[in-house]
Amino acid sequence: MGRTVSTMRDVSSPLSVVDAGLVEYTDAWARQRELVAGRLEGTAPDTVLLLEHPAVYTAGKRTKPEDRPTDGTPVVDVDRGGRITWHGPGQLVGYPILRLLEPVDLVGYVRELEQILITACADLGLATRRITGRSGVWVPGDERRPDRKVAAIGVRVARGVTMHGFALNCDPDLTAFDRIVPCGLTDAGVTSLSLELGRTVSVQDARPIVMRRLQEGLNGHIPVVPDDIAPQSERVTATVPGVSWHMEGALQR
After folding, report:
1. Cα–Cα distance measured from residue 141 to residue 145, given in angstroms and rounded to the nearest whole number
2. Pick the catalytic residue: 36, 183, 193, 206?
3. Ranges 16-20, 167-171, 202-206, 239-243: which has the least confidence
């Protein structure tokens, strides 16, 4: 299995990771646009905003009508990739505003973010993986539970500068995902660090670890390991007598 140690960003710029606290989504989106303008003009460094949002649904450009809430819950339509998701308390959100090296490798950049979060999850005690064809960070399913996403990724790159980013579920209320088809996936679940580990892992617990891993990964010091697995529906699973595959309780998101 090969490994490469590199980063997609232009490391000639310093990297600033900012703990921004609790920020309304639209305010954070406006701040991202300001930072993108500054990065394009050369007046701002590469910056990662780490924050929490009050509860909000956001829909990327590939969101389908059937993904959206059916109860009239408001949704903010945004200019990132991907489909619909939820942000809210208990979720650590990161918005890297970075100038990428030319030629821009968007897939490589997403893999880099995934590897950073996989490493941070391992630091907190949770083993996670990539799943082929699905962005984000996953806990693989088995004959009892589905593949389930613990961190979502949705990004945009314009003129070589990134915006939007990732959301890591620490200890959110996962019932918020009941009103939508999160990320457009009907055959997978959504989970959190706390649910998987059986103990409370707060945003405050995760933040310093993610900050450290962002600094390391975005400066080229975390190997990107190509160890993707196929979606659960494509993996070979043995039939276990007396066991039927189903989504259970809070994992049915």
Report:
1. 5
2. 183
3. 239-243
Instruction: Calculate mean pLDDT across residues 182-197.
Output: 79
Residue 2 pLDDT: 42
- Average pLDDT of the chain is 87
Does the active-site annotation cover 183? yes
pLDDT in tens, 74-120: 889 988 877 888 999 999 999 999 999 999 999 999 999 999 999 99
